[in-house]
Amino acid sequence: MKAFAALLDRLAYTPSRNDKLRLLADYFAATPDPDRGFALAALTDGLFFRLPLRRILGELVEARVDPVLFGLSRDYVGDTAETIALIWPASETSREPPRLAAMVETLQSALPMEVPSLLAKWLDQLDATERWALLKLLTGALRVGVSARLAKTALAEWSGVPLADIEEVWHGLRPPYLELFAWLSGTSPRPEMEGRAAFRPLMLSHQIEDRELAGINPVDFVAEWKWDGIRVQAAHQAGEKRLFSRTGDDISGSFPDVVEALPEGVVLDGELLVMRGREVAPFNDLQQRLNRKSVTPAMLKSHPAHIRLYDMLFVGDEDLRPLPFIARRARLEAWHKIHAPLRTDISGIIDFASVAELEALWAGARETGIEGLMLKRRDSPYIAGRPKGHWYKWKRAPLLIDAVLMYAQRGSGTRSSYYSDYTFGAWRDGEDGKPELVPVGKSYFGFTDEELKELDRWVRNHTVESFGPVRQVEPKLVFEVAFDSVHRSTRHKSGVAMRFPRIHRIRWDKPAEEADRLETLTALIVD
Amino acid sequence: MRPDKFDSWLTVDRRGLLCRPGGFYIDPHGAVERAVISHGHSDHARPGHEHVLATQETLAVMQARLGTAARRGTQKVAYGEKLKLGEVTVTLMPAGHVLGSAQILIEWKGARAVVSGDYKRRADPTCPSYELVPCDLFITEATFALPVFQHGDARGEVAKLLKSVGQFPERSHMVGVYGLGKCQRLIALLRAAGYERPIYLHGALEACCALYESFGVKLGVLKPATGPKRDELKGQIVLAPPSAIADRWSRRLPDPVTAFASGWMRVRARARQQGIELPLVISDHADWGELIQTIAETGAEEVWVTHGREDALLHHIKSTGRRGRALALIGREDEDQ
Question: What angle do CA B247, B248, B253 make, to 5 degrees?
Fold first, then answer.
């Protein structure tokens, strides 16, 4: 538990992805089985403890700490679990803390009535950081800024085995991942995946460049719409039905409606959407479903999910990936005609005769649900990763507004001495009839390192007031902000939320009064 | 004025805590005729007093930081030396907070009052250890007076820093430290852990380190952080005042890991707010356990609480049957920054 707690503690404060990878790789290298396997499970959301944790902890703390002192402490710390970890009285009889694996295994086999005393015993044996880590583990949400994919990337870096190979076996394996670690440390062969529902790493596309566009011709390429959902892989093999995200996370639990409908013996590639009738709903609606681990019947009804199919990787035992795209596509269409599973359809092929015709299509692509165009070589096999020269995406042109910088916040990591996170606003009429700025978005990218230095200097020289790491600045600097779309939002004062806002240009030249008004944004709302 | 009625002879006015029969203030906020100073931190040792009485080390710190310790005269006292001031007897006793820090024992007509100043009870290789002084009235600090503050072994925190230095050899480690006390204690702890490489200092820390060394505290090889080339600082430990670590000064360092040695680092939100990547819980103040242990051990029936989080400590004092009171002293900052 000591090493695991130290790892979580360090990860929670480490902003840089590369530094996180190093911390994880060092941990996997230094920690024996089965501890590291359970740690990996915890980091990839693979451990669940269904415990009435809040009630148990409440009772344990009440018996040990004066309630007035606990209340004052809770108010100061701001988090109940952390307060308990910090306030737990040091035990006189503290012994060597138990190992992570021992705790997980004990808990998995414990009767509900045994849990409170087990927990009390452990909390006595642990120090404050270890107690914090234990409570995080038990709540099932570590929140240390490590995604399942990052943890797998660390495994790849540590072992030298390609990430795609790890992802391919991942879903056939279970904690504490003894087979996996044996393979990665070179002491046993790759785990056998025959007959298990496994994730097959996706084939991804490149953003098309102008010179490449000129070379696109209808003899070699087909075009499809790029739908505005999330890329998924749907598999039903060996009696298991699974829905995987692009990065191999199992999201079946959030989308039982599409998973149920999958016929046996197939691996499909497509876009997950929310669809009402034949209408693709805005991305925001899909977001509502993505954010939930379990889904309510009401949600299933109001936000029905759907897969728009792009490709087919397996049918029966046959691996279609070596076939040309056009051949896979024909198999997909034939298969779909027979099975026609509910909540699926096939993404249509768009006819075009020339690049000019494509450009016209692309420029007109403003309809809900369309993010741009996809161009695919007719003869491309399905290759994991992002192979060059096969698939291109051509995202529709971004929307732009001119907004005024209002607040700047210090960045993290290497940017911690720079004011690099910017909140910008648009004009509207205030209550007194005078124009006022209302924040409409926040962004910390889109500019160069040189521009960051200039912006940092500007912020320091135009500060009106400081609130901790945040500075309010004079409303004088205009950003041209690019974004993909804008949605209604009840969480923001402005009533709008932008998707992927980035600083497109810094308009040093433009007077702030000439920046856009809020109405310009509300007019672009699609939902 | 009655000896058993403490608030008749120890009173608070806008300049600070006044001992009326002794004719002096203790750590006054405003300039006064006669001041007794517990230690050299700037919220206790302020400029402009006519006469100052303190330990030799504290006077030296005041001299170094303020240019002069007093306008007219200074008087140095050794720990344990009894001194008559007006009608009272004053004795300075080690407080274990920083070099020269003292508790102030005031005896008047058989009554004993102790002003703790800032103190800690854990070992510190750079200053004499706290000594318990039994008393009737104990006036205590309360910087970390919440039961969530239980400072662990500082050696464990230093081990955490050294592990990170080993793990990220291409980065520098920039540790925010308070210039007087924390800086030198951290250096001494690093040396005790076997770290013998040069330690690099922000310019603002150099004078205090030199002062400690002049009093015989060995700190090993120290180098200025502003001279060397960027690459020389890779894999090195650099100490800087808290105000410098998140600001432009830090840009001279190669990809620094931002650390901060402070008791506040025990609370995650505090570390996150300041963008700290490696929080080190090292405090020069008493934690909750030390505060309540000390209150009990002094035998005081009455306890006054100065700066800090007095609600929780007063609740504890009253629940243990003692008389308690919060002293609202102006000018005390959120300490241990």
Answer: 100
DSSP-assigned letters across all residues of B150-161? ----HHHHHHHH
DSSP annotation of A521: H
Whether A439 contacts A423, CB under 8 Å: yes
Nearest CB among A76, A79, A90 relative to B150 is that of A90
Contacts of residue A490, Cβ cutoff 8 Å, sequence gap at least 6: none
Q: pLDDT band at residue B251, thresholds of 50, 70 and 90?
A: confident
Query: DSSP class of residue A97?
Result: P
- Residue B337's pLDDT is 43
Contact A39, A169 (CB under 8 A): no
DSSP B39: -
- What count of residues does chain B have? 337
Residue pair B83/B77 in contact by the 8 Å Cβ criterion = yes
CB atoms within 10 A of CB A378: 14
- C-alpha A447, offset from chain centre: 23
Provide the ipTM: 0.93
In sequence order, the 6+-apart residues with CB closer than 8 A to the CB of A469 are A409, A410, B246, B273, B274, B275
Going by C-alpha positions, the residue among B62, B42, B54, B63 that lies closest to residue B115 is: B54
Mean pLDDT of the region A189-209: 84
Residue that has been written with the tokens 């910008």 in this structure: A424
Report how far residue A257's alpha carbon sits from residue A294's, in angstroms, rounded to the nearest whole number. Answer: 12
Burial of A96 (0-12, 13-18, 19+ CB in 10 A): exposed
Q: Nearest-CA distance from A70 to chain B in Å?
A: 8
The H or E element that residue A182 is part of is: helix A178-184
pLDDT of residue B331: 60
Give the total residue count for chain A. Answer: 527
C-alpha span between A145 and A149 (Å, rounded): 11
DSSP state of B333: -
How far is the C-alpha of A325 from the C-alpha of B300, rounded, in Å? 86
Contact residues for A102 (Cβ-Cβ < 8 A; gap 6+):
none
> Which pTM does this prediction carry?
0.82
Contact A20, A153 (CB under 8 A): no
How far apart are the two ends of chain B, measured CA to CA in Å? 38
A413: contact with B, CB 8 A cutoff: yes
Task: Return the half-sphere exposure (C-beta side, CA atoms, 13 A cut-off) of residue B9.
Answer: 20
Q: Which of A15, A22, A87 sits opposite B148 (nearest CB)?
A: A87
The pLDDT value given to residue A237: 87
Contact A72 B311 (CB under 8 A): yes
Tens digit of pLDDT for each residue in A263-319? 999 999 999 999 998 889 888 889 888 877 778 999 999 999 999 999 999 998 899
Mutate to test the interface with B, among A2, A13, A80, A136 (most CBs of B within 10 A): A13
